[in-house]
Input
Amino acid sequence: MPKPKRGDPEDRIRAILGIMRSGRMPRVGRDALRRFHGHLAAHLVFPFEGKLNSPVGPHRDTASPLSVVRRMDPVAEYAPEESGGLICTAIQNGERIELPLDRIVVAGDSPNHQFLGDYGYWFSNWC
Output
């Protein structure tokens, strides 16, 4: 498979999901979420700082920083649903919370920025 272009998120996402460069982008589903989870498990650096980009469920605080301490395993800990995507555990204002990973934003200089950006791009456009 050709190496994805550095600036093309769709090519990077196709490579992550094992799709030929010219192939159709897969929709969000259990198998694709598990494949993306494997990629993130190999590359995300924990813990990392970020913020909630928009309210979700009971979590409304988009101003306070949070620390993402782990990703939940969609095979061992829960069955991912297309509408919720991958889940992470974070600490915000001293409280441990579980959040959809696509709702977390990090600084542009974070080593996790591109990984989370690619996941969020795919999740928001092919869900």
